[in-house]
Amino acid sequence: MSVSEALPQPEQSRRRRFDWKALSPFSKPLYKDLTFQVLVGMVLGVLLGVFVPIVGKNVNVVSTIFINLIQMVVGLVVFCTVTLGIAKVRDFGKVGRIAVKAILYFEVVTTFALVIGLVVVNVLHPGSGMHVDPASLSGAKSVHAAKSMSLSTFLEGLVPTSAVDAFAKGDILQVLVFSALFGCGVAALGAKAEPLVGVIDTVQQSLFWVIGKVMRLAPLAACAAIAYSVASYGLHTLLSLGSLVLVFFLTVAVFFVVVLWPISLFAGVSLWKLIRYFREELLLVIGTSSSESVFPQLTAKLEKLGVSESVVGLVLPTAYSFNHDGTCLYWAATSVFLAQATDTHLGVAGQLSLMVVLLLTSKGGAGVAGSAIPMLALTLAATHTIPVASVALILGVHKILSAAFVFTNIAGNCLATVVVGKWEKAIDWTQMNRELAARV
């Protein structure tokens, strides 16, 4: 052994400092992390709504502007994503196969969501004993049902009268149909369309840059949205319907454990790690109750996760229109809750018919922002038993419930994209494991 080896080395002679960064789930300083910023914004929003309600009622404009900024580009992002997904595949058989698998998956999972929502609310009876007279509800006059939608009307509504009109109205379903057709046209041109594909790809990257800048407003938007809810309804009003809130949160938890967790095991991915990977987006939708606000980020992060661009481009936009797991839980739970609260008897046959109606109306509200309450009113009107005016009973807690069901929608859509990617053998598992490990 040499003398230098025998002597104690400086690094060995000093006690090592404890590396707190190694334990931190954040890859950058805490105050710079979007997750932390959104959480702080939500806490400040509650305090602002409680102690300065006059200000709280007037800051919602910040949240509205933020959501409008995102929605301003969502249609174009869907167009670019779907077009590129189809154009780069150039295999119409594969495109059709992915679409069919995705829609079948959505139908099965949303049906499970409806069943779980009905079962939990029937077992726990959160509305029993309230004996509410719908005519006495102060907000009854402000509740309007959406227009009834037949199958033929729904199918007709899939096709826009013009592409510009679909983008102008922000109708995601119509934009999706146009984008799919346009993508097929680009794919059919083959090599001739390469310059156009390059332009669309450049446009998509430019839109992502815009989204990245807008996302800096996310903490302020979350603060404003929470402040407005608390200032408008008050904590005591929200807590008065706490039983429904608790039961619905339990329903969401049951859905995650009974449905999404087994699906994640089948897909070969950790549900917890997936949620951690999308934590910024999930926290943002809790604060804003808007799923559209995170669509561009989900697209980019799913591709970064290792899921093929073609799968992401086809499955995620379709999921936004057809895979509303959380919203189905919400409609099922609140429909029966309102029946219980108004002493409306719903037998087995009545609840089965309610489930069939929900399967139809859930597609009628697909991709329409803020459609939960109008579509719930439409569902109640279609039952001809539960008073439509009773919807006013849950307006005070709708913001809390919507945060939970939008969170579930986003988590379910991300998992659905991974599942279809696994079926198509279109996932780089090495990249996925590396990305998930880096975020935990």
DSSP strand tally: 0
Largest sheet entry:
none
Contiguous helical run count: 23
CATH class reads Mainly Alpha
Q: What percent of the residues sit in helical stretches (DSSP H or I)?
A: over 70%
| CATH level 3 topology | Proton glutamate symport protein
CATH superfamily: Sodium:dicarboxylate symporter
Instruction: Output the radius of gyration.
Output: 24 Å
Strand content: under 5%
CATH architecture term: Orthogonal Bundle
Count of discrete structural domains = 1
Low-confidence stretches: 1-26
**Structural class by SSE content:** mainly alpha
Shape type: globular
Mean pLDDT: 78
What does this structure look like?
- The protein is built from 23 helices and no strands.
- The protein has one domain: Orthogonal Bundle (Proton glutamate symport protein), CATH 1.10.3860.10.
- It is globular, with a radius of gyration of 24 Å.
- With 440 residues, the protein is an all-alpha fold.
- The two termini are 43 Å apart.
